[in-house]
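Hi there, hope your week has been kind to you so far. It would help a lot if you went through both lines with me. No rush at all, and the record is pasted right below:

***
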Amino acid sequence: MNAVGIDVSKGKSMVCVMRPFGEVVLEPFEVLHTAQSLNNLAGKLKALDGETRVVMEATGNYHKPVAFVLHDAGLFVSVVNPVLIHDYDNNSLRRVKTDRKDAVKIANYTLDKWTRLRQYLPEDDTRLALKNCYRQYQQAVAVRTMLKNNLISSLDLTFPDANKLFSSPAKSNGCEKWVDFIGDFWHSECVSSLSSDAFAKKYLKWCQKHGYNFTRSKSDTIYACAVNAASLPKSPTSKLLIQQQVAQLKAVSQSVAAFQQEMLRLSQQLPEFDTVMEMYGVGPSLGPQLMAEIGDVRRFSSKKSLIAFAGIEPQPNDSGKIVGNDSGISKVGSAVLRRTLFLIMTVILKTQPQDEPVFQFMNKKRSEGKPYKVYMMASANKFLRIYYARVKAVMDSKHSK
């Protein structure tokens, strides 16, 4: 039994090989993340006598090249949650944290959990591309939110509440009407310096140019807001700041829209796409997000494993005669998946489909007087169980064919 513990970091890893009863086969040594070094490591491990199993922590993207090369070389590789390694064998008051110690700890974990290790299976190209695209989508959405808040803050000085004048949904390319409008009418005086009729004609031409609907009532509403606005005087600096912020926001919004379209295209290639999209509350935006974060459900041994991955399982809190009834959820798993599930539950709560099992369960918990977050996460738990059962059935049937 050759237990290989690999402590992965950026650009390099620390490797230790141990056998039962503390026998050290290879003292901890460093390996660079280059093709030659990783191939040499694979050859060295395959040359060991006996059965060899390799364990490493899931560390973002750093572990993926190492795991792929070793798996491709025919070695048994297992990628485990860092929480499991962190909580393993913490029986010392001394807190020693070095790469060498961590590699030894992972090797000991490998020996202890030898028969229960799950083999690493590389993601197929489509799923990997979908997940990477989703990560970039998340970053772009965060930047878009920051830029929106920044622009609205600047508008408080030039055209207060201009962002509240329009409720049109965003276009397929990510453009929003209020952002386009502010790009041309960046100050309230751009509107109020004209007469009501003159602005109506100018607004009509603007709507035709940008492909928006025109109504005289909306024109009058904008004009009234501009006339009553309390803003600082116009200046070239204010114009520059507003228009640059608009340009930045439009560029990021277009990136978000492009990522959404690419995620939808990639998810349509997955065998579970139709099944997932049929589930209530899942649309062309949340569906690809859900599939990207969960991945292939067959990597989870049971429904409970998927729920634990999402971090929405209740934590028992009983001790002696004390029974903890309000222990919350674990939150150990994927925060991104929990957010997606919460958005799906919000859709179900707003639309209230009476014949939908998840809403029926949610309504039952509400009638029992459960707090908002409790019945929302309990419903997410129910949703994930249904998701696992339906998608796994589809995956198994297509795999058998």
User: Anything to note?
Assistant: The two ends are 37 Å apart (CA to CA). The beta strands are 2-9, 12-19, 23-32, 52-57, 76-80, 317-319, 322-324. The mean pLDDT is 88.
